[in-house]
Structures are given as C-alpha cells and as structure tokens.
C-alpha cells in the first residue's frame, strides 16, 4: 500500500469549494483537521455559519477531492459549525445571551418584511442555529400572530435583581413581541421617546437563552426605532427587504442610506414578490417589475441575497400561525428562505476580522 502524502491531502483540501459562498476552504480560512490510519482518512471541518442544508454537498466534495489520492482507500467527513459572535457597529454593551443581532428592515410597508423576517429566523433554526426573533414594530406588532402564539404572556423571572421576561418558544425559535403584552385592540398611543424606551426594554429585559442570531423585525421607515437600534444596540448588520417596483426601491434606498449614515453594514437585499407563476398554466409573470433588487444591490455595493416568488401559500401559511419554513421545511419555497439564511449567516461569518494567515491543516497518524 503506498504511503499517503500529507502534502497531497493539504493541496486537495485547500482547493475544495464551499457551496454557499463558492470560495475555497483556503480562501475562507477554514482549517480542516485530518487524521490518517491504514489508508483511511478522517476529515473534520468546522464552518462559522449553520450549514445543515449544504453539509452533505460539502462532505461529498471533500470525499471526491481525496478519493483519487494514491494510498487513500476510504474517506469519512464530519461537517460542523461554531458560530462566532460579531461586535456591533457601535459601542453599546453586548446583549446577554445573544451573539449576533441582525435587523430586517424596509423603507416602506407592504413589501413582506415581517413575513421575510419570521421565515428567515425559522430558516436559520432549520440550518442548525439557535435563533430568537424580536418584534420591534411597537405600534403594529405581528410576529405573535405569525408564529401562532396569540395572546400568550411571557413568564417573568428574577435575574440580577430585576424582572426579566422569558422568551416564548414557537417552532423552535425564541420570540418576544409587544403583541404578547397588550391586546390586539390596544393602540400604542406613544411618542417617539416612549417607543425607543420600549424597544430597549424588550431587548434588554428579556432572558435570551444562548442565541446565535437575534432577528429584529423592524417597523417600516427610518424613524426613532431605527435610530435607537442603530445607535444604542450592538446590531451586527441589516437586511433590506423590497419588491422590484420602482416606488419600493426608492424607499429601500432610503433604508440603506440610513444604515450607512450610522455605520451599520447592510449584508444584502432580499427581493420579495419577484415573480408570479400561474397555478393553472405555469406561466411566469413579473407583476411588480424585474431585476430591481439586483440593481439596488449593485448600486450600493452589497448583494442580492435572494429573490422570493409571489406565492399564495406564503401568505396563507403565515396568516395561519405556521409560516412556510415551519409548515414544510423541505419545500421549494422553504429552500429559497434557507438559501438566503445560509448566505446571510456566511456573509456575517466572513465579515469578522481575520489575521490574514493561511489555514493550517493538521495531519496526524493514528
């Protein structure tokens, strides 16, 4: 049996392309751990984002890269992830129990932002992360309804000498919303400072339990809540939701500009209601225009994370309290959300500071 060359293993692994970002493991700074025993090679790869949906694809790529090397008789691959914590765009104190805060925002209402936010949270959870969602729309909360929780009240516990809310679990996601604290008939007749204070209370007086990603469903526009979140909360970055129509894009630009002014990175744009497919004949039609999300992403130097179709079932499942990703996590629609979730979390991972050193592949003989 020929002896396996460590150099050949190193070269082959460095050239493997990670499927979400479509870059090599070397480029991503991933350091595979490798052990060799009597012709059998064991590889362990740890990514910095939840990758349940592509772990098998990556494992197959590693297997293929190593199987042709002289002396390799068999290969086993283990893919795991360890999600790092990224600092916020400001100097605000970290939120206990939360690694990364991501704002999902839009310049105007009616573009499907809240629906996108809840499905994005569920998609991250399905991909293998611990996820929370905070409904920051104080005036018009909707996440309690979308998650099927209704008027359930959060438990209150003592922690550090103050009352803390315990997030309500829904479909595997920790959730907090003003909708849990008031009835649907109670209008929030509050001025701006009161709303900002309520947001900080919801965030800071919730006992988050080891959350990798906290998705914040923002109210539409660029007002007090947006500024409070940007300046007083360690938000890691934002996602802008828009539709392809020109009016929506104009408002989406304002949202991007607002985050830029307060130095919050925009990780990408999600284009909602991009295309409608007729349920009878299969004809596709761009009802709200085509290519708008890609144009705005290109204009502002960010990326189009994904385009979502105009589909009746997305509205129906969300209205029923069982959003698309929870209702059928393996459907084609859920696949759209899961690809967006992987791309977003991978971008967040790669946004971390790097020491710029090439990865070191450790090879041992067992």
Structure commentary:
- The structure is a single chain.
- The chain has 366 residues and is α/β, with parallel strands linked by helices.
- It has two domains: 6-84 and 353-365, GMP Synthetase, Chain A, domain 3, CATH 3.30.300.130; 98-350, Rossmann fold.
- Helices cover 33% and strands 23% of the residues.
- It has twelve helices and 18 strands.
- The protein has helices at 6-14, 25-28, 55-67, 113-126, 143-146, 192-204, 224-232, 246-261, 292-299, 312-319, 324-327, 332-350; strands at 17-18, 23-24, 33-37, 40-47, 74-81, 98-105, 131-135, 156-159, 162-165, 168-170, 173-177, 211-217, 237-242, 266-271, 276-277, 284-285, 304-307, 362-365.
- Helix 4 packs across helix 12 (332-350) and helix 6 crosses helix 7.
- The longest helix has 19 residues, at 332-350.
Write the layout of secondary structure elements.
Elements: H1 6-14, E1 17-18, E2 23-24, H2 25-28, E3 33-37, E4 40-47, H3 55-67, E5 74-81, E6 98-105, H4 113-126, E7 131-135, H5 143-146, E8 156-159, E9 162-165, E10 168-170, E11 173-177, H6 192-204, E12 211-217, H7 224-232, E13 237-242, H8 246-261, E14 266-271, E15 276-277, E16 284-285, H9 292-299, E17 304-307, H10 312-319, H11 324-327, H12 332-350, E18 362-365
Parallel strand pairs: 3-18, 4-5, 6-12, 6-13, 7-11, 7-12, 13-14, 14-17
Antiparallel strand pairs: 1-2, 3-4, 8-9, 10-11, 15-16
